């Protein structure tokens, strides 16, 4: 069994983890897959992209809330951008 310090050494940096979560939201939005804009689905997409353990974001005590916040903030930002973009064309 590996220790927490070994796990930390094997996983991507915090900035890479954060960007993967944002990218999962952007990809779902760009593809028109609005049903993919959920916390759990975005986490799963990011975990697959990074080839890290399934459930990492959900089960890691630090990343559980942090990932939820990053995904939620990104969804709000993407939605606000879409509204501004649509309104600017009207």
Describe this structure in words.
The protein is an all-alpha fold and 90 residues long. It has one domain. 77% of the residues lie in helices and 0% in strands. It contains five helices and no strands. The protein has helices at residues 4-10, 14-30, 39-50, 56-59, 61-89. Helix 2 (14-30) packs across helix 3 and helix 2 (14-30) packs parallel to helix 5. It is elongated, with a radius of gyration of 15 Å. The model has no long low-confidence stretch (mean pLDDT 86).
Outline:
By secondary structure, this protein is mostly helical.
Topology:
Blueprint lengths: L3 H7 L3 H17 L8 H12 L5 H4 L1 H29 L1
Name some characteristics of this structure:
90 residues, mainly alpha, 5 helices, 77% helix, elongated
Overall shape: elongated
**Range of strand content:** under 5%
Termini separation (Å)? 58 Å
Point out poorly predicted stretches: none
What structural category do the secondary elements indicate? mainly alpha
Mean pLDDT: 86
Total DSSP helices: 5
Radius of gyration: 15 Å
DSSP summary, beta strand count: 0
* Secondary-structure element order, N to C: HHHHH
The level of helicity is over 70%
Number of structural units classed as domains: 1
Main sheet characteristics: none
